[in-house]
Amino acid sequence: MKIFHTPQELQEYRKTCQGSVGFVPTMGALHNGHISLIKKSVVENEQTIVSIFVNPTQFLATEDLSKYPKRTQADLKICSLANVDAVFMPEVQSIYFPLEPTIVAPFSKAYILEGLSRAGHFDGVLRVVLKLFNLTRPDRAYFGKKDAQQLYLIQNMVKTLFLPIDIIACDIIREEDGLALSSRNIYLSNEEKKDALLISKSLKIASKTIMSRGRKTKEIAKAMRETLLPLHVEYVEILSREFEPLESIEIGNTIILVAVKVGTTRLIDNIWI
Ligand code: AMP
Prior knowledge:
Layout: E1 2-4, H1 7-16, E2 21-26, H2 32-44, E3 47-52, H3 72-81, E4 86-88, H4 92-95, H5 107-110, H6 114-117, H7 121-136, E5 140-144, H8 148-160, E6 166-170, H9 190-212, H10 217-227, E7 232-240, E8 254-262, E9 265-272
The structure holds adenosine monophosphate.
């Protein structure tokens, strides 16, 4: 497995790649969620490139990115065992420049939900993903449905900037008890982990209600909020796949999204109906 630290090294390597290239962008501290994306790419492509980069432009000034978990050696081992061909782990200075054109995510979809409490977050996400796409020039890029809004905005960027890349949406990987895997789960105490189970429980209740009792989104959101009551709920939203409000659930075109704080840890989850 090759490891590259500079854009130039990666670009030279990319010129030598034959067959399809799959790309999995990550911020490291890899868990089974990331691994599922990597495995899918390895199966579907001749070459797989993984990036590990804690992107500063997607963090708010108030967020401490130095606290983001770092596990470089373990991450490299995971990539190597998964048969990744190349890992790209650049320094911030080699990715960003003092003067550069930038990209702004569409306001109406980027300043709601995750973007409401994290203004500018998705501008930073699109900015780095576009740079990484230009460096890796992948045929396919793999993203988790866990970050549904991010996935939507990346799909929108690829479509509207005519990038020749297939975006592959990958299912959410969960613990056996239902908790969606996240790099942030390590911040949870045992007690908080139990509390966090209310998130997947509320989503399960929502899907059961849809199957048995009704499809009015207001009522479903209310039932979910009741389940989530012990937690600090940031939002419960039931939206179309285009992130538009819905009055009634539309099977095949609905995402139910939750963001809560458990202690000081912010967690998100969703289900696709
Ligand atoms: P991150 O390192 O948090 O930027 O995540 C890198 C990629 O892994 C993103 O596309 C995430 O949506 C995806 N991902 C994170 N957690 C999960 C999970 N539990 N299941 C599936 N994909 C995930």
